[in-house]
Specification:
The complex is a heterodimer of chains A (about 120) and B (about 800). Chain A contains five helices and no strands. With about 120 residues, chain A is mostly helical. Chain A is elongated. Classes of the chains: A mainly alpha (about 120), B alpha+beta (about 800). Chains A and B meet through helix 3, helix 4 and helix 5 of A and helix 1 and helix 2 of B.
């Protein structure tokens, strides 16, 4: 339950923050929420990964559907990504997921470092 | 342990964020900042537009005085209804930027020699060439000159303000895609950028010549052969101004010096070998007495490099002073080719030689010799920013002729002779007023008044009015020349070889309502030898003969005829060459592969239709023939020579079949023209069968030709449209080859209610992520048209897909 709440919190806050701040601001969100989360290290990593990644995945998926995959096809061709245009969604989301995951774990582990003397 | 557990994920996050926030070089690949680019909040996903327009219907813009209604039709062409001209041109700037900002920004950077800023050192030679040709210098002259005219000043200032209002509205997410991939930001627009764009077009259309190649030919072969290969006026030309048109004006004789031609081998930095000429524009108008409606018909299809985003942007512009529809150039106010309720106009390139080269005798670092005296050199220091490398500072000398393009800093294969360029594009002029005037023209007189502002690049302006006039004038600021002046590089140490004034505009080649009932142009010679002034230039011979044949029939013409003619695939050069070839090739001992090609040619109607295999076979033979016949001129890049035109090649082969040039040097016997034809046929047939075997399919013309509408950045192949199924070729009315073609096709019927049809190989949007990016390409390729929606006032019906109101 706690895991789901933390994941959703990361997703919701990261979404709002990225509407105004650069893409890497998602790391700050994941870091801070990881810090206050009380999850285990691996759970924080997973929550950051899923929370950040899902925002990018869902938003990209939505924009891609409205566009009939027109541009993702072309971007895939530009970068030499084989065949499927839909692959551009997970590729994009992976960036956010990795960054969010590391940052959430980093935040959580910082708390471990400073609180348990 | 806890410290390591803290350190590792945080370090990973930091490294990831930093690495993906900037450009990455992996091996020889340079990756854009992947984080921002792949983010759905700011990256390319934001450019993935839906087909439906989802914009704000009510936009506030501080720069407007009144309220402006913009209606987007089914093809998303904007129709602008403003209450005054100030708001009209402001909105033209705003809307053009909304669809084409990256394109207009990129082209003006290109023109001013700033590509190295984006692509690094590989752009340096191109940038130096453009700067040394003085394109930016020309734009500076024009921008200063335009300030003297209150009308063009207002138009440009308002257009500029509109573009900049759009730029100010951009966020990271709404930035055009190319900026995101190439990792840079748009710059504010200015009047200077518009003049840069106009000079970019001037450079495209008049910024080349063959003075170097002709000089090299003269030095290698002498005058007689040079004239044979590159004649000023070959036999059989069909000029723009019909033969027999009187020229009733006196012409004073010019001082004609004894020609001295520069010695040496000159190879310009733009030399890229002999390519078959890419000229291709057509325009014509048919008098109402010869149309089915009784009103004139006008057709115009300018041909340019096929690019995306398109060079043209369709618009309707309406204010109390004007209601005009047509093709605009992103970056320039007004409609460039179009129509209003009373009149229509179109352009083709004049091809007149308005660039001459002079050798400069430097006396010291800051003086050169002229008429026995010293003249001062003006220096210009250009700093070229180079991505990933130090700035490059180029020193450019200016003389009274113009820039010294080539010298010891920018040599030609070791030849350091300083060469200055005299080019009419460098002269101050205000072409914008021509288009401002044409947009509002009602009568033939309005048209003439508008043209008198037009200096460079020379264009053939065709005109037709509802009142019933048709006309054509080759307009431009053309130097008066003595015979052959400027065909070769001239001596700049004396004033003997300089231009001695310009042809008055009312003496430019022109005709109004000729007895034959039509006017036309297809990049051919403007006039025959009865025209009192000498001129030289770069002309076409096939399309003019074809269009005049088509328009010369005794019948009433329709809009459908006009469309058919613009898409006509008949090749005059094939008609000239194939029977000659068949007479000379001995077909008795042909193998089955050769026999197949022979039969294709025998049964061919000389139409380059998309599926024609005969066209492919002929093309292969023709290309081979050009290489074999002109082997003496090769290698072109070492000798700095140009191949004669196909038209001249066929004439020389027919008139001088045993000329020494016909011999193929690499073989023992002395060959003649018939031998060349035999060799070309056999080699072409082999090429044809090889292609078939290698590709495993029939060599249909469209497959071999590969017409591609390419993104302006060659690297962005993914944003291009390759392998378009269509016919046509150079020297055919449908002058579509692999890289060039009709950039806008327009037909206007000047009835009581003007009707028009048009299409271009692109779409309204410049965004590769938009449905409207290339939405018209298939219609264009099929030779079909859209009926153009010419509105008198805003309407509420199914022709409009979205209406937007802009106000303060």
């Amino acid at each position: 339950m706690k895991f789901i709440i933390v994941t959703l919190a990361i997703a919701a806050v990261a979404f709002g923050v990225q509407l105004v701040l650069p893409w890497w601001s998602l790391a700050l969100v994941a870091f801070l929420i990881g810090f206050v989360s009380n999850l285990s290290g691996w759970a924080a990593l997973a929550a950051g990964f899923l929370g950040s990644g899902s925002v990018w995945a869902l938003y990209a998926f939505l924009l891609n559907s409205g566009n009939n995959s027109l541009l993702s096809h072309k971007m895939a061709a530009l970068f030499g990504v084989p065949s499927s245009a839909l692959l551009m969604v997970p590729i994009s989301a992976l960036i956010a997921a990795l960054l969010g995951g590391f940052a959430a774990a980093g935040g959580r582990n910082l708390k471990q470092l400073v609180t348990s003397k | 342990m806890k410290f390591i557990k803290f350190l590792v994920p945080n370090l990973l996050a930091l490294v990831l964020a930093f690495a993906l926030n900037g450009e990455l070089t992996i091996g020889d690949k340079n990756l854009p900042p992947m984080g921002p680019l792949l983010s759905p909040f700011t990256g390319f996903w934001q450019n993935a537009e839906s087909k439906e327009i989802t914009w704000n219907p009510d936009v506030k813009l501080d720069g407007l005085a009144g309220s402006v209604t913009v209606q987007y039709d089914a093809r998303r062409v904007p129709h602008v209804f403003a209450q005054n001209d100030e708001d009209l041109y402001y909105m033209q700037g705003y809307l053009t930027a909304q669809d084409r900002l990256w394109e207009m920004d990129f082209i003006t950077r290109y023109a001013s020699g700033r590509i190295s800023e984006l692509v690094g050192e590989r752009g340096l030679k191109l940038d130096r060439t453009n700067r040394r040709m003085g394109i930016a210098y020309a734009a500076e002259q024009a921008a200063a000159h335009i300030n003297d005219n209150p009308t063009s000043k207002m138009v440009l200032e308002r257009y500029t303000a509109g573009v900049n209002a759009y730029i100010a509205s951009l966020s990271d997410g709404s930035l055009p895609l190319e900026y995101k991939i190439m990792n840079y930001k748009p710059e504010l627009w200015s009047a200077y950028k518009t003049t840069l764009l106009l000079k970019y077009m001037a450079n495209n259309l008049s910024g080349w010549d063959k003075d170097f190649e002709y000089t090299n030919a003269y030095n290698l072969f002498g005058k007689e052969i040079t004239d044979l290969l590159y004649p000023d006026r070959p036999a059989g030309i069909d000029p723009i101004i019909p033969a027999g048109t009187p020229y009733n004006f006196p012409v004073e004789a010019l001082d004609t010096p004894k020609y001295t031609i520069a010695k040496g081998v000159f190879i310009s930095s733009e030399f890229d070998g002999p390519i078959r000429e890419n000229l291709g524009s057509n325009n014509w108008a048919v008098s109402g007495s010869r149309t089915n409606t009784g009103f004139p018909l006008l057709a115009s299809d300018p041909h340019l490099g096929l690019n995306l985003p398109s060079i043209w942007y369709e618009m309707q512009l309406t204010s109390p002073s004007v209601n005009v529809y047509g093709a605009t150039l992103p970056g320039s106010p007004c409609v460039i080719i179009g129509f209003n309720a009373d009149a229509a106009w179109g352009v083709t390139n004049a091809g007149m030689d308005v660039r001459d080269w002079y050798t400069i005798k430097l006396l010291s670092n800051d003086k050169y010799l002229h008429d026995g005296a010293e003249k001062p050199i003006v220096y210009r220091y250009d700093t070229i920013r180079v991505k990933g490398a130090a700035d490059f500072i180029d020193t450019i000398r200016f003389t009274h002729f113009g820039p010294v393009v080539y010298d010891e800093r920018f040599d030609q294969n070791g030849n350091t002779t300083p060469l200055a360029l005299r080019w009419t594009a460098h002269d101050a002029s205000d072409e914008l007023m021509t288009f401002y005037g044409l947009n509002r023209a009602k009568t033939h007189n309005d048209y003439l008044k508008a043209l008198n502002y037009y200096y460079c690049p020379g264009q053939n302006f065709v005109f037709a009015s509802h009142a019933g006039d048709i006309a054509i004038r080759q307009q431009g600021h053309f130097p008066k020349k003595w015979p052959e002046q400027g065909r070769f590089i001239m001596d700049g140490s004396t004033s003997d070889f300089e231009w001695q004034g310009f042809i008055p505009f009312d003496q430019n080649p022109q005709v109004k309502n000729p007895p034959r009932g039509w006017v036309s142009s297809a990049n051919q010679h403007p006039a025959d030898s009865t025209y009192p002034y000498y001129f030289c230039g770069y002309y076409e011979y096939d399309r003019s003969r074809r269009i005049n044949e088509l328009l010369g029939e005794d019948r009433k013409y329709t809009v459908e005829d006009m469309k058919q003619f613009q898409n006509d695939n008949y090749a005059y050069y094939a008609k000239d060459l194939v029977p000659f070839l068949m007479e000379n090739v001995n077909d008795l001992n042909l193998n089955p592969g050769q026999k197949e090609v022979w039969e294709l040619l025998k049964n061919w109607d000389y139409n380059y239709t998309a599926d024609s295999r005969a066209a492919t076979a002929f093309e292969m033979i023709y290309d081979t023939l050009m290489v074999l016949v002109w082997d003496e001129l090769q290698p072109y890049d070492e000798k700095g020579l140009d191949a004669p035109t196909g038209y001249v090649t066929i004439q020389v082969m027919k008139a001088h079949p045993e000329h020494a040039l016909m011999d193929y040097k690499d073989t023992r016997p002395i060959e003649d023209a018939a031998d060349m034809l035999n060799m070309a046929f056999l080699a072409g047939a082999e090429k044809y069968q090889d292609w078939k075997a290698n590709n495993g399919k029939e060599p249909e013309w469209w497959q071999y030709k590969n017409t591609t509408v390419a993104h302006l950045v060659p690297f962005f192949k993914a944003f291009s449209r390759p392998m378009i199924h269509m016919g046509g070729n150079k020297h055919i009315l449908n002058a579509t080859d692999g890289t060039h073609g009709a950039s806008w096709r327009m037909v206007v019927s000047l009835e009581d209610e003007v009707k028009a049809w048009g299409v271009y190989p692109g779409g309204a949007s410049g965004n590769p992520g938009s449905y409207y990016y290339d939405a018209y390409v298939d219609t264009w390729a099929a030779g079909e048209y859209y009926e153009l929606l010419f509105l008198k006032a805003p309407v509420q019906n199914e022709t409009i897909q979205f209406t937007q109101t802009f106000s303060k």
